[in-house]
From TrEMBL:
Active site: 149
Subcellular location: Cytoplasm
Classification via SUPFAM superfamilies: Glyceraldehyde-3-phosphate dehydrogenase-like, C-terminal domain, NAD(P)-binding Rossmann-fold domains
Catalytic activity: N-acetyl-L-glutamate 5-semialdehyde + phosphate + NADP(+) = N-acetyl-L-glutamyl 5-phosphate + NADPH + H(+)
Family assignment from sequence similarity: Belongs to the NAGSA dehydrogenase family. Type 1 subfamily.
Highest taxon of the lineage: Bacteria
Pathway as given in its UniProt record: Amino-acid biosynthesis; L-arginine biosynthesis; N(2)-acetyl-L-ornithine from L-glutamate: step 3/4
Name of this chain's protein: N-acetyl-gamma-glutamyl-phosphate reductase
Described function: Catalyzes the NADPH-dependent reduction of N-acetyl-5-glutamyl phosphate to yield N-acetyl-L-glutamate 5-semialdehyde.
Documented EC number(s): 1.2.1.38
Record domain Semialdehyde dehydrogenase NAD-binding: where: 3-141
UniProt source species: Aromatoleum bremense
Source species taxonomy: Bacteria, Pseudomonadati, Pseudomonadota, Betaproteobacteria, Rhodocyclales
Length: 342
């Protein structure tokens, strides 16, 4: 059994981790932290976990995380980096759901995240946890940077086009919509029911912190610079990301075949039949990314539709997928979940 700590067990991605790990046959949850609710039984806060998770929340400083084999940080940006060195030196592997280790250029990270990096030496060895790209490197990772939710949907949607050299890299467009849980569980005015339940808006058009992360991933696939326009939107649903991606073809290819072949062995990427329109509810609470590729009127522009659940393939599910790879387990263990859909 893998001894597991979860820092940030009261947040949306934290409770999603608990849901997945509670039924994972190799997971032994030993510590779940909360600063404000230490001592409270986890199932008092989350009744859905009653009978599944028997622990009480513990304060982060009392969690004795060095007894764990792996610690998940489901915390705001800038927390994991403060404890990473100590944990790594104690032989504990770390999976950060935040962005502390995602950007390889530390100065670039500091610019976008507005803080000084506390463990720049560990950024160099951290592995970006997108299994569809980095499976082999993930196996031996001591520090795993779990990708962001928007970056997961966008990178998986563009990946076959870019790896194969079929896309004109000068101008890629990612028009992406997120559910409100993407903003986390903390109280904020813009996520109040009366603000978000009956509204739709773009934000971060001038520059969102996921832009450098997506660009870094796409450039690694391409081996060269890419031009990217990324526009996130907040949409009145709770979970889900819907990415509409546009690329101009640089050569004539059968895009449907390209996607089917690239993803044929991937357990969590489902290429839909030609002409499909994936819906966010078709992946709700599952670790799947569903993609459909279109070439309207047989023209040069390809439109890719990519949907994920931001809390699962966009966060906790992908983190568990990476844990499975890191600990030589079946990659799908604990993740073989049928989506929740009407
Ligand atoms: N929501 C999403 O769709 C996605 C989120 N992420 C990333 O995952 C991380 C968690 O997101 P999410 O679950 O939505 O956030 P939430 O705001 O819902 O939860 C944050 C958690 O962190 C804990 N926390 C806050 N500050 C500290 C601290 N200083 N030390 C220890 N624990 C702390 C809080 O617990 P308490 O106050 O009880 O201590 C809480 O459990 C973020 O970095 C986010 O960017 C990544 C992909 C998708
Ligand atoms: C809807 C919404 O607010 N989404 C968040 C992004 C999701 C997130 O938590 O960011 P990471 O994936 O980097 O961790 C935002 O735009 O800030």
């Amino acid at each position: 059994m893998i001894k597991i700590g979860v820092v940030g067990g009261t947040g949306y991605t934290g409770v999603e981790l608990l849901r997945l790990l509670a039924r994972h046959p190799e997971a032994d949850l030993v510590a779940i932290t909360s600063r404000g609710d230490a001592g409270l039984p986890v199932s008092d806060m989350f009744p859905s976990l009653r009978g599944r998770v028997d622990l009480r929340f513990v304060a982060p400083q009392d969690a004795a995380l060095d007894r764990c084999d792996v610690v998940f940080f489901a915390t705001p940006n800038g927390i994991a980096m403060q404890q990473a060195r100590e944990l790594v030196d104690a032989g504990v592997r770390l999976i950060d759901l935040a962005a502390d280790f995602r950007i390889r250029d530390v100065a670039e990270w500091e610019k976008w995240y507005g803080m000084k990096h506390a463990s720049p030496d560990l950024v160099a060895e951290a592995v970006y946890g997108l299994p569809e790209r980095n499976r082999e490197r993930i196996r031996s990772a001591r520090v795993l940077a779990n990708p962001g939710c928007y970056p997961t949907a966008v990178q998986l949607g563009f990946l076959p086009l870019i790896e194969s050299g079929a896309a004109d890299l000068s101008h890629l467009i990612a028009d992406v919509k997120s559910g409100v849980s993407g903003a986390g569980r903390k109280a904020e005015v813009h996520t109040l029911f009366a603000e978000a339940a009956d509204n739709f808006k773009a934000y971060g058009v001038a520059g969102h912190r996921h832009l450098p992360e997506i660009r870094q991933g796409l450039e690694a696939m391409a081996g060269q610079c890419v031009g990217l326009t990324f526009v996130p939107h907040l949409t009145p649903m709770i979970r889900g990301i819907h990415a509409t991606l546009y690329a101009r073809l640089s050569k004539d290819v059968n895009v449907q075949k390209l996607f089917e072949e690239r993803y044929q062995d991937e357990p969590f990427v489902d290429v839909l039949p030609a002409g499909s329109h994936p819906e966010t509810r078709s992946v709700r609470a599952s670790n799947l990314c569903r993609v459909a590729v279109h070439r309207p009127q047989g023209g040069e522009v390809v439109v890719v539709l990519s949907v994920i659940d931001n809390l699962v393939k966009g966060a906790a599910g992908q983190a568990v997928q990476c844990m499975n790879i890191m600990f030589d387990l079946d990659e799908s263990l604990g993740l073989d979940i049928v989506p929740v859909s009407p």
